[in-house]
Write a structure and sequence with these properties.
The chain is an alpha+beta fold. The chain is built from 20 helices and 8 strands. The protein has 2 domains: 310 residues, Orthogonal Bundle (2-methylcitrate dehydratase PrpD); 114 residues, 2-methylcitrate dehydratase PrpD (60s Ribosomal Protein L30, Chain: A).
Length: 445
């Protein structure tokens, strides 16, 4: 069978009961993390503008625009909520490909669950499916032998396809309709890295979410497409990643679960930055009180400077993806969190001055999750740290307890303590709910 047909058949036949317990639990973790980062990000300017825009369009009010006090269409709610989940750079990441699959998948299936009654088992199955398909498509596009241009924004290419599969499963598309949905979703692939650090970098996952939702809902109505859109000559792979191996998206499908390589960020920053943060924090713990830093040298994977090499961030969004800013803050601040990329921290004279003195070397021999830091003090003392596995990596994933703490920190932006605790408990129990959209919707602001 063709790639498009195999993915479509897998999506149509997927069942929650067939998922290993570890995958079922990971889907609940993904949902909890998504609700937290969406609540936290809903207060940001990018989210407010997106919410104001969809409100101005008008639509049948069925799905919540989280944190903004109104409902809109399924596609528009998913669009805004995905932007909110992305804007703090505190979401998730599929570490092999640097894709962020939970945001599009969760925003889409939750919006759909508020419009049509969906059980917890159906919901988590669709969420796991959407994440899995995105990760597999991202593998095919990004990993050898794929020659895909790293300047493409991978979520804009994998997101629509995974979302179409997830929503299509919830609305019970047949295999023919699912192939149409995947094809229409794939035809909307887009995104480039040049806009990284602006609001547009969060528009991309939002747009990919909306694209997948629209593709599935229109396929349900009979809107057709070619049946082999992913692999046909002149189709998705041929245009965006000629020479890639479709087997990268299919190997072990249904047995090996790629979504287990997806992890949740320990800091609100670009996913390649945490190894540097951990190295600098480890050194800070050994700097004597009152000692002055004379020089900072970093050694990082080349992707770090490609994605997060802004030395002088001008905005909070740019600060979130500046390895220089985070290294300086990690060396000078006792605590790192939601305030670290904010304007006051970005403009702090001591942090700004130290940013300008940090030297970073791109080292191809270092892995994406690896970093080295060397700090020379004014008295000549040299302190070094080599981090191989950062917090939030596959080897050091956030525990359920750490996710609870992260959720509480994010939820306080919109909710009081008691309301946040009730919502957190409901998120963990989502698999047992009879009506996910209705039961969780009443707890959202």
């Amino acid at each position: 069978m063709t790639l498009t047909r195999q993915l479509a058949r897998y999506a149509v036949e997927s069942r929650f009961e067939a998922l290993p317990q570890a995958v079922q639990h990971e889907a609940a973790r993904a949902f909890l993390n998504w609700v937290g980062v969406t609540l936290g990000g809903s207060a940001e300017d990018a989210s407010r503008i997106a919410a104001r825009f969809v409100a101005s369009e008008g639509a049948t009010p069925v799905s919540s625009v989280i944190g903004h006090g109104f409902r809109t269409s399924i596609a528009s709610a998913a669009f805004v909520n995905c932007i909110a989940s992305s804007v703090l750079a505190y979401d998730d990441a599929h570490l092999p490909t640097v894709a962020h699959p939970s945001g599009p998948a969760a925003a889409a299936v939750f919006a759909l669950a508020q419009a049509r009654a969906v059980s917890g088992a159906e919901f988590l199955n669709a969420l796991a499916l959407g994440i899995e398909v995105q990760c597999r498509v991202a593998n095919m596009l990004s990993l050898p032998p794929a020659p895909m241009n790293p300047k493409f924004y991978v979520n804009g290419f994998s997101g629509p396809i995974g979302v179409a599969a997830a929503v299509g499963r919830l609305i019970r598309l047949d295999e023919q309709q699912m192939r149409w949905a995947i094809g229409t979703a794939a035809s909307q692939a887009s995104g480039f890295r040049a806009a990284h650090g602006t609001m547009n970098s969060h528009f991309r996952p939002g747009s990919s979410t909306r694209a997948g939702v629209v593709a599935a809902l229109m396929a349900e109505m009979g809107f057709d497409c070619i049946e082999n859109a992913l692999e046909v000559d002149g189709g998705f792979i041929d245009v965006y990643a000629p020479g890639s191996d479709p087997e990268m998206a299919l190997a072990g499908l249904g047995e090996h679960h790629e979504m287990l390589a997806n992890r949740y960020k320990a800091y609100p920053c670009g996913i390649v930055v945490p190894p540097t943060i951990d190295a600098c924090r480890e050194i800070r713990a050994r700097i004597p009180a009152g000692a002055a830093i004379a020089r900072v040298e970093l050694a990082v994977n080349p992707l770090v400077l490609t994605l997060t090499g802004k030395r002088e961030p001008r905005t909070t969004i740019e600060a979130g993806i500046s390895v220089y800013h985070w290294a300086a803050a990690a060396l000078l601040c006792d605590q790192l969190g939601l305030d670290t990329p904010e304007a006051a921290c970005v403009a702090d004279p001591a942090i700004a001055e130290l940013r300008g003195r940090i030297e970073a070397e791109a080292r191809p021999d270092l892995g994406k999750g690896e970093a080295m830091a060397k700090v020379t003090l004014a008295d000549g003392t040299v302190l070094e740290s080599h981090v191989i596995h950062a917090r939030g990596s596959l080897e050091r994933p956030l525990t359920d307890g750490e996710l609870n703490t992260k959720f509480a920190d994010l939820a306080r932006v919109r909710l009081g303590h008691d309301a946040a605790e009730a919502l957190r408990e409901m998120c963990w129990q989502v698999g047992d709910l009879a009506d996910v959209g209705g039961e969780i919707g009443v707890l959202l602001p």
